Recover the amino acids of this structure.
């Protein structure tokens, strides 16, 4: 294949990625956009097998096929065997951590490519090439280890709360200085051992960077690390003289940055605060007066009676709905109430669940009509006229502490103001606090009734109780 | 490739990246992040190029590892995004999915 044709195919793939991102920004074209992106990536990958990139030392490119062709194909096969089943079998609830994991391996791949390139860099390398290679190693390693930590947090393999230890910010700042110092060392010394030190320090920094992040900020960090990985890919493109990698990487870096900002805005967080939370986080007193306080718990029949005489009901779904796979049951309940002439709407908090849009995806799966899903700004003014708010497995997104308790981890996050409804029903598994690990005063409110148990089981009971009325 | 051309491509791509996602409803944040995540899986192209260039076993081993990781990122990313977006498509016959937990 001629160099020009190879370049044009790369350009076509770049255009496909632009169309993909454009398509993914609108609900109607989203799926097609994703397929266009996949097609672009496939074509780009196939084209590398038909064109030998000349080595950087200026010697002529060898003829086709590629060296180590079978090993390369074997490695791709291994990747397919691991990646495809993981992506196909994962439960909707575990989607966020899988995205984090995929992002991490992408960052790891970029770092490895940079390390191999670095081993190639002889005395002929320009300073710019060395700097870009070192940049890719650092950011790729940070993205890799940081994503692994977010994965572990979301998978609840470790605590979901911010991990802050005394003097933590000095350790983190010190690590960052060490990373930058060793980067200078690597650029000047061009040796293998300085590079290994740099990679190790970068991996450590990635861990320390993500540890102090907790609760609702985790998705923002995933998005940010995603943008980071994009930039490393762009930097690899510079070193490998691949226009395609520069375009694709920069697109992801830029759109990922905007997306990170949009997410942060949706949650009322400052991006800066999230970004540099690692440096400013102070160890917090664990508020742990675990005194027994009375709560009002009810049965499914009590809930059904309350619903039967309501005129307007707002359903607020959260992560518990996802865990219990209760999206079909909640729709059944909503349909039943509508057939009884009750005005029903869903109040969707942008970050309910573990990721923005998580609830929309789940409820769309259960064919809940789109016009019943109200976003936060639409639904909040209506809680005053709402007879019953049913909170299903949500906690932090309705916690009034976000408005009333300065200094608590979610302070400032916009919430669904269910506290203005006449009655509140919480479907919960236990009294355990939400992802952010804060107590919810609303649970002790006299107008609150709790129905303990798995969301799906509880909803099924409420449905049959309501049918019997 | 000369530096000016690269800087031009980079700068223009930054603006395109900003523009295409500037207005997105929060519903699509997760699929969009996942789709962008899959796109940076094209580092696979770079991994294949360095595998072709590798001269020592260490280089070859590292680049093959990079190929495996990049393939997981790219293919897994597109598949998982498609599964998320499948949910937005109107279905005539909803099937109860997922086990009880």
């Amino acid at each position: 294949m001629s160099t020009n044709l190879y370049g044009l195919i790369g350009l076509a793939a770049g255009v496909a990625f632009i169309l993909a991102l454009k398509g993914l920004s609108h609900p109607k074209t989203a799926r097609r956009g994703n397929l266009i992106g996949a097609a672009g990536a496939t074509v780009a990958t196939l084209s590398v097998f038909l064109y030998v990139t000349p080595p950087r030392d200026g010697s002529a490119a060898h003829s086709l096929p590629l060296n180590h062709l079978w090993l390369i194909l074997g490695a791709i096969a291994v990747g397919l065997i691991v990646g495809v089943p993981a992506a196909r079998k994962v439960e909707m609830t575990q989607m966020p951590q899988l995205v984090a994991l995929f992002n991490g391996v992408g960052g790891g791949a970029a770092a490895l490519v940079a390390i191999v390139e670095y081993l190639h860099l002889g005395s002929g390398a320009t300073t710019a090439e060395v700097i870009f290679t070192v940049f890719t190693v650092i950011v790729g390693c940070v993205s890799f280890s940081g994503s692994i930590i977010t994965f572990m947090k979301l998978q609840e393999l470790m605590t979901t709360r911010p991990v802050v230890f005394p003097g933590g910010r000095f350790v983190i700042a010190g690590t960052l200085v060490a990373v930058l110092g060793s980067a200078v060392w690597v650029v000047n010394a061009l040796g293998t051992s300085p590079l290994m030190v740099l990679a190790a320090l970068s991996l450590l920094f990635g861990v320390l960077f993500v540890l102090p992040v907790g609760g609702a900020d985790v998705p923002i960090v995933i998005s940010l690390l995603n943008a980071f990985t994009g930039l490393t890919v762009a930097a690899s493109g510079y070193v490998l003289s691949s226009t395609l990698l520069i375009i694709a990487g920069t697109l992801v870096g830029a759109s990922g940055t905007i997306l990170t900002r949009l997410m942060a805005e949706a949650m009322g967080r400052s991006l800066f605060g999230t970004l540099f939370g690692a440096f400013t986080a102070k160890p917090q007193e664990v508020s742990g007066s675990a005194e027994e306080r009375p709560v009002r718990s009810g049965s499914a029949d009590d809930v059904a009676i309350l619903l039967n005489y309501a005129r307007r009901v707002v359903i607020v779904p959260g992560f518990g709905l996802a865990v219990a796979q209760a999206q079909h049951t909640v729709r059944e309940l909503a349909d039943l109430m509508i057939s009884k002439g009750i005005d029903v709407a869903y109040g969707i908090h942008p970050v309910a669940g573990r990721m923005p849009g998580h609830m929309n995806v789940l409820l769309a799966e259960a064919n809940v009509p789109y016009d019943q899903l109200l976003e936060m700004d639409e639904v909040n003014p209506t809680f005053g006229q709402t007879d019953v708010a049913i909170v299903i497995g949500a906690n932090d997104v309705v916690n009034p502490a976000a408005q009333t308790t300065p200094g608590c981890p979610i302070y400032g996050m916009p919430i669904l103001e269910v506290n203005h409804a006449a009655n509140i029903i919480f479907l919960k598994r236990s009294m355990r606090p939400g992802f952010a690990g804060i107590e919810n005063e609303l649970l002790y409110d006299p107008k609150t009734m709790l129905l303990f148990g798995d969301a799906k089981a509880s909803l099924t009971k409420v449905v049959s109780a309501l049918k019997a009325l | 490739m000369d530096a000016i051309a690269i800087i031009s491509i980079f700068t223009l791509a930054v603006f395109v990246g900003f523009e295409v996602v500037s207005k997105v409803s929060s519903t699509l944040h997760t699929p969009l992040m996942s789709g962008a995540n899959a796109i940076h899986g094209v580092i696979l192209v770079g991994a294949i190029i360095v595998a072709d260039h590798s001269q020592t076993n260490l280089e070859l081993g590292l680049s093959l590892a990079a190929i495996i990781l990049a393939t997981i990122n790219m293919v897994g990313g597109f598949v998982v995004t498609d599964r998320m977006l499948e949910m937005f498509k109107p279905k005539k016959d909803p099937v109860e999915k997922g086990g009880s937990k």
User: Anything to note?
Assistant: Confidence is low (pLDDT under 50) at residues 281-291 of chain A. Chain A touches chain B through 120 residues (CB under 8 Å). The first helix of chain A runs from residue 3 to 24.
